[in-house]
Design a protein that fits this description.
The structure holds 3 protein chains of 3 kinds. Chain A is mainly α. Chain A has one domain: Fumarate reductase/succinate dehydrogenase, transmembrane subunit (3 helical TM bundles of succinate and fumarate reductases, Up-down Bundle). In chain A, helix 3 packs antiparallel against helix 4. The termini of chain A are far apart. Chain B is of the alpha+beta class. Chain B has 2 domains: 102 residues, Beta-grasp domain (Ubiquitin-like (UB roll)), CATH 3.10.20; 132 residues, Fumarate Reductase Iron-sulfur Protein, Chain B, domain 2. By secondary structure, chain C is mainly alpha-helical. Chain C contains 4 helices and 2 strands. In chain C, helix 1 runs antiparallel to helix 2, helix 1 crosses helix 3 and helix 3 runs antiparallel to helix 4. Chain C is flat and about 75 Å long. The relative contact order of chain C is 0.07. Classes of the chains: A mainly alpha, B alpha+beta, C mainly alpha. Chains in contact: A-B, A-C, B-C. At the A-C interface, helix 1, helix 2, helix 3 and helix 4 of A face helix 1, helix 2, helix 3 and helix 4 of C. The complex binds iron/sulfur cluster (SF4) and FE2/S2 (inorganic) cluster. Iron/sulfur cluster (SF4) binds next to helix 4 and helix 6 of chain B.
């Protein structure tokens, strides 16, 4: 029997799923609803100056990368399984599409964060 | 008590390979009493209505594991399911899902049995032990680690509940992986490395997507979903540390 | 010659067969929304890197009614994700003993959900404190 490479993708899936389960609802509420439509938080919470300062700090960079990349890897893994469950048999194509997408997203996010200098 | 007799309609999915191209439904009207199981209903059909209906059974008391079938779409032991619960609507019985139909309600269990043998379902002692050394001792807590997983009666209901097995029969499947865990989790056993060669493969623990229905339908409370998924963590740790832990590399 | 001709049934539409399977598929479909949300954030980040005007464009875009509808759906889906994640947790965790008793599934799910409520509140308070 060939050892499975699933542990790599499963670990990322699990980390992203846990992060989403713990703070996902709060993040969506803040970035998608409360701040843009101006309740609970002051409207400049996500202003350019604030967000720039946040992503200039190392803690901020790590947090932003963790959220974007892990959510993407979590989703990629599940969508990959979902397609298999729906009976899509183009295994390689599905993998390239899902995990390739998550990889690309991770690289773009990491690169952008590195380019944002203090 | 004839005056208490009610009639229930049982639809049976028939498949006679010598005459049917594909399975067809056939309905029987069966008189029944409240204490009659679905299995007894089928036995009535066979004895009085249609001797050609085939199905498996033995113990009639939920322990031999041979009478599993789909009852109104759910995998159940027919000896443990009662006709009264389907009255007055009637019920449909079909061969266990995801397994090839041999004839009528009888499925082909070859794949299950072959896999069952392949996982070494017996204790492989950690170290050889002479008779004079006495029995292997085990604390109640050590026993609790595997006891639940040792109650399997090989009824294959969990296979009929597992879409991953239905989609890919190469997947070892819930019941047998649970049994594998039963031996791996036994404090007297030392066969983990041998068994996990399969466990750590795509056909092993990783073929599972945590649907969880297997645990729901198991008539013995085995919880195969837990037996499988708690091993994913071990498997992942082993995957990442195999080059730094002595003897961890394997294949 | 053998007269055996085992019949293999099709798996087409298997997930419609049982409400349990529909719930499972609903759990898996949440991933599509997690991906979409991550992509929206990724766009914001890229815009942030491109400077103030670009980023303000993204902020403006978030204020459109469509994006509000989108985020309301995503919020509901994320809540379902949280619930289903901790609901399946008792199946994915090793058996744990506490004080000689086995930890019950309900306790595991409950603890997870409670942790999530605490974490969400913490995020809300921290962000409020920062703004
Ligand atoms: S684990 Fe349960 S459902 Fe599966 S074969 Fe064993 S007894 Fe039957
Ligand atoms: S006849 Fe033995 S389990 Fe049903």
């Amino acid at each position: 029997m060939k050892r499975s490479n699933e542990p790599i993708f499963w670990s990322l899936f699990g980390a992203g799923g846990m992060l989403a389960a713990l703070i996902g609802p709060a993040l969506v509420f803040i970035t998608g609803i409360a701040v843009p439509f101006g309740f609970v938080f002051s409207p400049d919470t996500m202003s350019y100056a604030h967000m720039l300062a946040f992503s200039q700090s190392w803690a901020g960079k790590v947090f932003v990368l963790a959220v974007i990349a892990l959510f993407l890897w979590h989703a990629a893994h599940r969508i990959h399984i979902l397609l298999h469950d729906f009976g899509v048999h183009a295994v390689t194509a599905v993998r390239v599409l899902c995990y390739g997408g998550a990889f690309a997203g991770t690289v773009i996010a990491a690169y952008t964060l590195l380019m944002i200098k203090a | 008590m004839a005056e208490n007799e009610k009639i229930i309609e049982i639809e049976v999915l028939r498949y006679r390979p010598e005459q049917d191209k594909e399975p067809v439904l056939q309905t029987y009207k069966v008189p029944f009493t409240d204490d009659m199981s679905v299995l007894q209903g089928l036995q009535y059909i066979k004895d009085y209505l249609d001797g050609t209906v085939s199905f498996r059974w033995s113990c009639r008391m939920a322990i031999c594991g041979s009478c599993g079938m789909m009852i109104d779409g759910k995998p159940k032991l027919s000896c443990k399911t009662f006709l009264r619960d389907y009255y007055p609507g009637g019920l449909r019985v079909e061969a266990l899902a995801h397994l090839p139909i041999e004839r009528d309600l009888v499925v082909d269990a070859t794949d299950f049995v072959t896999k069952l043998e392949s996982i070494k379902p017996y204790i492989i002692p950690k170290e050889p032990r002479a008779l004079e050394q006495g029995e292997y001792l085990q604390t109640p807590q050590q026993r609790d680690m595997y006891e639940q997983f040792s109650s399997c009666i090989n009824c294959m209901l969990c296979y009929a509940a597992c879409p991953q097995y239905g989609l890919n029969p190469k997947f070892t499947g819930p019941g047998i992986l649970a049994l594998m865990h039963r031996y791996n989790a036994d404090s007297r056993d030392g066969g983990q490395a041998e068994r996990n060669e399969l466990g750590y493969a795509d056909e092993g623990y990783w073929g599972c997507t945590a649907v969880g229905y297997c645990s729901e339908v198991c008539p013995k409370g085995v919880d195969p979903a837990n037996a499988i998924n708690q091993n994913k963590m071990n498997s992942a740790i082993n995957y990442f540390t195999r080059f730094v832990t002595p003897g961890g590399a394997g294949k | 010659m053998s007269n055996r001709r085992p019949y293999v049934r099709s798996m087409d539409g298997w997930w419609k067969r049982d409400p349990y399977f529909i719930r499972y598929m609903a759990r898996e479909v949440t991933a599509v929304f997690v991906a979409l949300y991550a992509i929206v954030l990724l766009f914001g980040l890229v815009r942030l890197g491109q400077g103030e005007a670009a980023f303000n464009g993204w902020l403006q875009y978030l204020k459109t009614p469509w994006m509000l509808v989108f985020h309301l759906i995503v919020l509901a889906v994320f809540c379902y994700h949280t619930w289903s994640w901790f609901n399946i947790m008792p199946k994915t965790m090793p058996i744990i003993f506490m004080g000689g008793k086995r930890l019950q599934p309900g306790t595991i799910t409950g603890t997870g959900l409670a942790a999530s409520v605490v974490a969400c509140l913490a995020v809300l308070f921290i962000v409020r404190g920062m703004s």
